[in-house]
UniProtKB/TrEMBL annotation:
<keyword id="KW-0812">Transmembrane</keyword>
<feature type="transmembrane region" description="Helical">
    <location>
        <begin position="816"/>
        <end position="834"/>
    </location>
</feature>
<keyword id="KW-0175">Coiled coil</keyword>
<keyword id="KW-0597">Phosphoprotein</keyword>
<dbReference type="Pfam" id="PF07495">
    <property type="entry name" value="Y_Y_Y"/>
</dbReference>
<dbReference type="InterPro" id="IPR004358">
    <property type="entry name" value="Sig_transdc_His_kin-like_C"/>
</dbReference>
<feature type="coiled-coil region">
    <location>
        <begin position="950"/>
        <end position="977"/>
    </location>
</feature>
<keyword id="KW-0472">Membrane</keyword>
<dbReference type="InterPro" id="IPR003661">
    <property type="entry name" value="HisK_dim/P_dom"/>
</dbReference>
<dbReference type="InterPro" id="IPR005467">
    <property type="entry name" value="His_kinase_dom"/>
</dbReference>
<keyword id="KW-1133">Transmembrane helix</keyword>
<dbReference type="InterPro" id="IPR011123">
    <property type="entry name" value="Y_Y_Y"/>
</dbReference>
<dbReference type="InterPro" id="IPR013783">
    <property type="entry name" value="Ig-like_fold"/>
</dbReference>
<keyword id="KW-0808">Transferase</keyword>
<dbReference type="InterPro" id="IPR015943">
    <property type="entry name" value="WD40/YVTN_repeat-like_dom_sf"/>
</dbReference>
<dbReference type="InterPro" id="IPR036890">
    <property type="entry name" value="HATPase_C_sf"/>
</dbReference>
<dbReference type="Pfam" id="PF02518">
    <property type="entry name" value="HATPase_c"/>
</dbReference>
Length: 1187
């Protein structure tokens, strides 16, 4: 049922998108009664109020007020008008205070003009209403009560111009406004009409009544229509628009000198001006005409002479702040400013009115738009979610709206109060309407009646869900309607037969199923498959095979869906599926998907440029860009560049919050987007951006976070924004700058770029931050450069510069350096003179001393000669003694070697034929001592090389124990050894056995009777074992443990023991082990006695096969058949001789001829080496080689 119809006003259509930005005393304005506004040459805005003057930089206000007794402040706080002359002076008209001329850069008052009685040349009135400068530089002033006159720029005196004509006295003292007439004259508005002043003659030449013709003569005389403002029409230059006190807006023709039209308030016509008291009129650069009255702000159509009203709404923060509009002004960027007498300042930019706003459909609560669509006639249908109305039909051609609601008594009305989805039927005859609570309806456009298709829970052939979430109808199958429900799955509804088939999560279809029963959107791709947006994943449904494939978010797969709550779908013209979720936008290339069967999603999130990740609707425009609605406004994506442009409520959107699937593209390319405060209509190709390139001002300068004041002799003598250079001390370590871009369109979105030359290598983007701090600048000259980009990212070409000079400390200045050089030169000269004087004085003293010392030196030289001869004699004597000692040592070594070699043969014979164990033991000891002496000599001269063998350790230990058995039994000693693991070691068997014998012999010597000697074996490291021999003797003092292994060292020599020794046994042990790359040491046992230990290397399998065998191979002797034949006669004699019979063996070996064979000579050398070292194993091996 259509329950309402209303005129669709201009202000509710194309101008509904205007969102006013407001400034009041809460934002720093000195007072909310604002009378006038001006933008100076720098771009700063100045606002006059009834309580002071305000300068505005887009972020903050600077206030100028009157201070009694201070001539550098305003005379009065009531500012009535503002004007800036060609020289840049700011003229401040005061209501009751005359005029102040101000330097806008410094804020200082440079001149004051006031009315003084009986003082020629002063103002004729102090209530100044308007100021203007003509081409000659005369400042014209209109006053209330003092008429019109001018201030001469040279004499600074005021001259009044009076009006007289033909004896008719129309003299008026009340002038309100001035308009330049192309530099020929001035139009002056007064309380009695319009006057014209000739600038050449400085005389009034015309006067025109503008009273409404309907006024009676008596009414005309009493009313005397005054003129508040005069504006020349930009298109029809001969037309003046006159804003009057009580006759509305008057159109005046300067050619006929007549008022042609009076546009006044008509209570019966809502399209008339809202008040006859019109204060201001303005035609902006976009071609709009604006009118400000005592009761509202108006958009004016000169052709139709209709007004669209904008009034203050206390419930709407984006309405104008007050209805009493004093002045309308447009700044350089096209922003329109409204000065209100009762609410502060309002502003908007008509150039950027990109989004039409439709709201409050018949009721202030009917703002919630859940769904939108367009029929074939271009009418817009809005599905509402709150308020008494369920649906609105907007006829944009006829400019009216029809509101529909549910009527329980009428079955042909809509079934529910809440509409969730709208879809035009492909036939063009009706609209499918999804509801919340009452299922599916069909609206017949021709009849205006509804048909209901649900819901019947017991009817299995009907739609059984009361809540509709998505609708889709295919043009190829117009009889089939796909219905997505909120909780009951997907329905395939046969419109003709009124039969439906349901697909639900609980039902399987050929092995597949729907991922969730709540379906929010349906889209069809070029393959004919349906894509379903659900609360739990994305589904691809093949309607021919009835197979579902589901896609979900995966933490492990960055190419999976970004979130499982899928809210919107769009298949674009390129065959790309766009998927909106509650955590970003996803892109799926369907052509690649159908080619390789893999769903690879590209994600777009806040990091990509989205303002919010909850996606409500996705629409592709005719330029192939995507428009995406979110919880934080509307965003446009260019898929080719992946660049985002974001819009919010400040750009004219219904609000920042949109609703799911509330959007559609019309046939003419417009896009509709619905939200919680109505919907927006816009044309993407006509969306205009701000192209104004803002100028930047440096607005504040601080040192150590404290503002620097403006003083006559301080760092700043003028405000920082009017200063070119600042000079600082090196002590000013922390300096800060604040700046403002003079773009007043969404200034919070202005961005800043900064560079400090000689400090910053390149420009830095500060974003929206508009201050920067520098610390510890080195002395020098810097240039601060700042430029800004406006709210749409348009960067200014011009940069603001400030030279910053940091003075060095005195000790780093040129003056200091010059002074230091002068002082240094003076110091050097002084030192030279002082030194020269001293040298002369010292020369005399030295000459005397030299004479005396020369005598002494001669005497000392004679003494030194004598001492030198004595030293030479002593040195010769020492040389001879040293030669004798060397000869003696050589003789000793020879004798020792001869004795040892001569002792070996008798000892070998003695060991061979002695039957007594004691005799054999003594001979063996003596033999070991002899061998020790020989081997020590060889090892010291590096002539002894070890013969490596792989030996079983305990076999070698037992052999050593056997050799000292007699000695141990004599003292009744028990030799204890631990044999847990037998080790195979790599050693020179003979040398190592003798080491063991020497250490055991040493232990026996120092062990008391009936005690024990302990032999322990431990594996100490990889491939290393440690053998320790411990006795129960007195031990070795710590201070002697490092020297006990020295040659000829004996404890008896240090009075520690009475046991005599040669001092060669331990020295031999140390050298023998070092020859094998092993170590030896001694410690005192924790209980008692000494513990001697040494290390050996374990046989490694790899070493045996690689290293040991290599050494054996290198030393292996190969005898030829001829060699063996020559040696064969000597085999029986060799086998008959004992190895200890060294003399016989040597004699026999000397008699073996080698016939020039190196192998036989090598064999003989090895045979003698085995004999001297008593190596029976090697001896037998060499003899066996002959066989």
């Amino acid at each position: 049922m259509i329950i309402g119809s209303c005129a669709f006003l201009q202000a509710q259509s194309c101008l509904q998108g205007i969102k006013f930005s407001n400034l009041t005393s809460r934002q720093g304005l000195s007072q909310n009664s604002v009378t006038c506004v001006l933008q100076d040459k720098k771009g700063l805005l100045w606002f006059g109020t009834t309580d002071g003057l305000n300068k505005f930089d887009g972020y903050s206000f600077t206030k100028y007020t009157s201070e009694p007794g201070n001539s550098q402040t305003l005379i009065s706080n009531y500012v009535s008008c503002l004007y800036q002359d060609r020289a840049g002076h700011l003229w401040v008209g005061l209501y009751g205070g005359g005029i102040n001329r101000m330097n806008p850069a410094t804020g200082q008052i440079t001149a004051s003009y006031h009315h003084y009685k009986n003082k020629p040349g002063s103002l004729t009135g102090n209530k100044v209403k308007d100021i203007y400068e003509d081409k000659e530089g005369l400042i014209w002033v209109a006053t209330y009560g003092g008429g019109v006159g001018f201030i001469h720029p040279v004499t600074q005196k005021f001259t009044r111009v009076r009006y007289r004509k033909a004896g008719i006295d129309v003299e008026t003292n009340f002038s309100f406004c001035i308009l330049n007439d192309q530099d020929k004259g001035l139009w002056v508005g007064s309380n009695v009409g319009l006057l014209y002043l000739d600038l050449k003659t400085k005389q009034f030449t015309g006067f025109y009544h503008i009273n409404h013709p309907g006024f009676s003569q008596r009414m005309a005389e009493s009313v005397k229509t005054g003129i508040n403002q005069i504006v020349r029409d930009k298109k029809q230059r001969h037309i003046l628009w006159l804003c009057t006190h009580n006759s509305g807006l008057v159109k005046f023709n300067t050619q006929t000198h007549k008022a042609e039209e009076w546009l006044m308030h008509d209570p019966a016509n809502p399209l008339s001006v809202n008040s006859n008291s019109v204060w201001s009129f303005y035609q902006d650069s976009a071609g709009n005409s604006w009118v400000g009255s005592r009761k509202g702000f108006h958009w004016f159509n000169p052709k139709t002479q209709n007004f669209a009203r904008f009034l203050h709404d206390a419930q709407n923060k984006q309405s104008i702040t007050g209805n009493d509009i004093q002045q309308i002004f447009e700044d350089k960027a096209g922003t329109v400013w409204l000065c209100t007498y009762d609410g502060g300042i309002s502003s908007f930019n008509p150039h950027l009115n990109n989004f039409d706003h439709y709201t409050a459909f018949g009721d202030k609560n009917s703002r919630w738009v859940n769904a939108l669509c367009e029929d074939v006639q271009g009418n817009i249908y809005a599905g509402l979610g709150k308020g008494p109305h369920a649906m609105a039909i907007i006829n944009r051609k006829k400019r009216h709206i029809s509101l529909l609601k549910h009527d329980p008594a009428n079955a042909t009305t809509i079934a529910s109060k809440i509409v969730s989805r709208l879809l035009p039927d492909v036939s063009g005859k009706g609209i499918w309407v999804g509801t919340i609570g009452q299922g599916l309806d069909y609206y017949d456009i021709a009849s205006g009646e509804f048909t209901h298709y649900g819901y019947e829970p017991l009817d299995t052939t009907d739609l059984r869900s009361p809540h509709i979430g998505a609708l889709y109808q295919d043009k190829a199958q117009p009889n089939i309607l796909w219905v997505g429900t909120l909780g009951m799955g997907l329905y395939r509804f046969d419109i003709k037969n009124k039969v439906s088939k349901v697909y639900m999560k609980t039902l399987r279809y050929k092995g597949s199923k729907l991922s969730h029963n709540t379906i929010i959107d349906i889209a069809k791709d070029y393959k004919g498959n349906l894509w379903l947006a659900t609360r739990e994943g994305l589904n691809c449904f093949d309607p021919r095979k009835e197979v579902f494939t589901s896609y979900f978010y995966s933490f492990k797969n960055p190419k999976s869906l970004s979130n499982n709550y899928v809210s919107s779908l769009c298949v674009d013209a390129q065959g790309v599926l766009w998927v909106g979720t509650h955590q970003g936008l996803n892109r799926l290339d369907l052509r690649a998907f159908y080619k390789d069967g893999k769903a690879s999603f590209d994600r777009y999130t806040t990091q990509s440029g989205l303002p919010n990740e909850v996606i409500h609707q996705i629409i592709e425009d005719n330029q192939k860009r995507l428009w995406v609605s979110t919880n934080q406004g509307l965003s446009c994506l260019n898929p080719e560049t992946n660049q985002w442009k974001n819009y919010d409520a400040n750009n004219g959107l219904q609000s920042n919050e949109f609703l799911a699937k509330s959007g559609v593209k019309t046939r003419e390319g417009a896009i509709l987007m619905g939200g919680i405060n109505g919907f927006n209509l816009f044309y993407p190709d006509k969306v205009v951006h701000n192209t104004y390139k803002p100028q930047v001002l440096i607005t504040d300068f601080q040192i150590f976070n404290q503002p620097v004041p403006v003083t006559k002799e301080g760092i700043l003598t003028r405000p920082i924004w009017a200063t070119d250079t600042v000079e600082l001390s090196y002590k000013d370590k922390v300096i800060s700058f604040e700046f403002a871009a003079l773009n007043y369109i969404l200034p919070e979105k202005n961005t800043y770029h900064i560079k400090l030359e000689n400090f910053d290598a390149d420009w830095r983007n500060l974003g929206t931050k508009r201050f920067e701090t520098y610390t510890n600048l080195a002395p020098g000259t810097y240039v601060l450069k700042v430029k800004a980009a406006n709210n749409d990212g348009v960067l200014s070409d011009k940069e603001t510069r400030l030279v910053v000079k940091v003075r060095p400390p005195f000790w780093q200045t040129t003056t200091f350096y010059v002074l230091m050089v002068v002082l240094l030169i003076a110091l050097v000269l002084g030192i030279v003179r002082w030194r020269t004087h001293n040298l002369k004085k010292q020369k005399k003293v030295l000459e005397h001393k030299v004479t005396e010392r020369t005598k002494e030196i001669k005497m000392q030289a004679e003494e030194l000669q004598t001492q030198t001869e004595e030293i030479k004699a002593q040195a010769e004597e020492l040389r001879k003694i040293n030669e004798q000692l060397l000869e003696l040592d050589e003789f000793k070594q020879g004798v020792t070697g001869m004795i040892v070699h001569d002792l070996k043969n008798p000892l070998n014979t003695l060991m061979a034929y002695a039957k007594s164990p004691e005799i054999k033991q003594s001979a063996r000891q003596m033999h070991h001592m002899v061998l020790n002496i020989l081997d020590v000599q060889k090892m010291e001269s590096a002539e002894l090389n070890p013969h490596w063998d792989a030996v079983q350790l305990y076999e070698m230990i037992e052999e050593a124990i056997e050799q000292i058995q007699v000695l141990s039994s004599q003292k009744n000693l028990y030799i204890q050894r631990f044999r847990d693991i037998d080790y195979q070691v790599r050693v020179d068997r003979d040398l190592t056995t003798r080491v063991l014998v020497n250490l055991l012999t040493n232990a026996i010597k120092h062990a008391p009777l009936n005690s024990s000697i302990v032999i322990e074996v431990n594996q100490s490291a990889d491939h290393q074992i440690k053998i320790s021999i411990t006795d129960e003797g007195e031990g070795v003092p710590p201070e002697l443990q490092q020297t006990i292994f020295d040659k000829f060292f004996s404890l008896s020599n240090h009075h520690i023991s009475n046991i005599k020794s040669t001092g060669l046994g331990l020295a031999f042990c140390k050298l023998a082990l070092e020859t094998q790359q092993q170590t030896i040491g001694v410690t005192n046992h924790p209980s008692k006695g000494a513990q001697f230990w040494f290390t050996l290397s374990l046989v490694d399998k790899v070493m045996l096969t690689d290293q040991l065998l290599t050494e054996q191979t290198q030393q292996k002797l190969l005898l030829s058949a001829t060699d063996k034949q020559l040696l064969q006669p000597f085999v029986s004699d060799l086998q008959a001789i004992e190895i200890c019979e060294i003399g016989r063996l040597k004699k026999l070996a000397d008699g073996i001829p080698h016939e020039g064979s190196s192998e036989i000579q090598q064999w003989k050398d090895l045979l003698m080496e085995a004999t001297f070292s008593m190596n029976q194993y090697l001896f037998d091996e060499l003899v066996g080689m002959i066989d």
